Amino acid sequence: MATTQEKLVIIGSGPAGWSAATYAARAQLQPLVFEGAITEKNRMAGTLPLGQLALTSEVENYAGFPAGNLGAFLDSALPKDRRQMMAPHEGHGVTGPELMELMRQQAANFGTRIVTDDIARVDFSRRPFRLFPSAGGEVEAACVIVATGASANWLGLPSEEAFKNRGVSACAVCDGALPRFRHKPLVVVGGGDSAVEEATYLSKFASMVHLVHRRSELRASKIMAQRALDNPKITIHFDTALAEVLGDDAAGVTGVRLESTTARGTTTTLPVSGVFLAIGHTPNTAFLDGQLELTPKKYIVWKQHFRTATSVEGVFAAGDVADDYYRQAISAAGTGCMAALDAERWLAHHHG
Ligand SMILES: Cc1cc2nc3c(=O)[nH]c(=O)nc-3n(C[C@H](O)[C@H](O)[C@H](O)COP(=O)(O)OP(=O)(O)OC[C@H]3O[C@@H](n4cnc5c(N)ncnc54)[C@H](O)[C@@H]3O)c2cc1C
């Protein structure tokens, strides 16, 4: 690819990226989206195009998509070549991949151009900004929206991978209310604030929540830890690690094998119907190489209250890459809209 000059480049292809693209395209900014590359490396990292929702089954909490037969709508809204690549719709609520294809198509309908590649490197030290796609070449951009999301951390157990979406999840708020988890014993893995929050949230639906933590005390803040200790529906297993997720094809997850971290080789099994990993997220900011201000956890810092401006004027951030608190598709889409409006106003002011 030779050097091209763009008004607005959006990096990322989750709800934030596509919602920013739809708004920007309708505002005549001719956005160019880098949606990520289809590579084994991205597959392993969970960062293939279409973002985190492409990794899940049904999405029950995205406004505007009640359960129903969406098959005919998908057939009419999506181009044949992309529809053919998708699983048939089976009369339930919208799935993550379906929702993401619809968002991508909506942005494309208004003229968004899409490149299926990663941005490997950026140079924000001069204007126009320079972006370097993995496939080579260089793109110059007057304005950039970073919407590269974050990836949930997993333990990396083969059994964890085998039961993802069949009882193993990394998002209690997203999946906790699903019928497969209601009134059943569940496991949450982790010991920080989010693990305690997830356990507390799940205790509203589950018959019992087992919080499994490698260390002898929780890392969560005192007040959060006390909340877990006081909750009669949460049992904490200290000095314990998840060794294996147990289950079968028909039922999904049926139990876990736990191992003591102090007495190696000592294992116990627990019958549970779900396993929730709450061991943090990694924001996709490594490619920025320190050129935007980041939090200690490597999330992009929004420099103004309720605005998406970053530490470099003309670079905006949207979605989970700048949000380690809400981490929902609808909040990511909301900040994508905000970033496009912020970019439009910034471009109007600086570039006429
Ligand atoms: C298993 C699972 C289930 C979930 N279920 C729900 C749910 O039911 N409801 C809900 O509201 N939320 C759910 N979430 C959370 C939701 O998916 C996220 O909050 C949302 O997707 C964040 O959107 P985003 O646009 O910020 O980025 P992401 O969805 O993280 O997408 C960003 C994408 O940008 C691309 N990208 C990254 N780096 C680059 C680069 N350098 N160059 C080009 N492209 C790049 C990648 O394809 C990456 O995946 C779930 C998350 C997971 C993991």
Give me the strand/helix succession.
EHEHHHHEEEEEHEHEHEHEEEEEEEH
Q: What is the helix content?
A: 25-40%
Second CATH tier, the architecture of the largest domain: 3-Layer(bba) Sandwich
Rg over alpha carbons: 21 Å
Give the CATH superfamily of the largest domain. FAD/NAD(P)-binding domain
Q: How many β strands by DSSP?
A: 17
Strand and helix map with partners:
Layout: E1 4-11, H1 15-26, E2 32-34, H2 40-45, H3 71-77, H4 80-84, H5 96-109, E3 113-115, E4 119-123, E5 129-133, E6 139-146, E7 150-152, H6 158-162, E8 168-169, H7 172-175, E9 185-189, H8 193-202, E10 208-212, H9 222-230, E11 234-237, E12 240-248, E13 252-260, E14 267-270, E15 274-277, E16 281-283, E17 315-317, H10 329-351
Parallel strand pairs: 1-2, 1-6, 2-3, 6-17, 8-15, 9-10, 9-15, 10-11
Antiparallel strand pairs: 4-5, 5-6, 7-16, 12-13, 13-14
Overview of this structure, please?
By secondary structure, this protein is an alpha/beta fold. It is 27% helix and 24% strand. The protein has two domains: 4-152 and 281-351, FAD/NAD(P)-binding domain, CATH 3.50.50.60; 158-277, FAD/NAD(P)-binding domain. A hairpin with a 3-residue loop joins strand 12 (240-248) and strand 13. Helix 1 (15-26) runs parallel beside helix 5 and helix 1 packs parallel to helix 10. The longest helix has 23 residues, at 329-351. The two termini are 28 Å apart. The structure holds flavin-adenine dinucleotide. Flavin-adenine dinucleotide (FAD) is lined by residues 11-17, 34-36, 47-49, 51-53, 55-56, 59, 61-62, 118-119, 147-150, 152, 170-171, 174, 284, 287, 319-321, 327-330, 332.
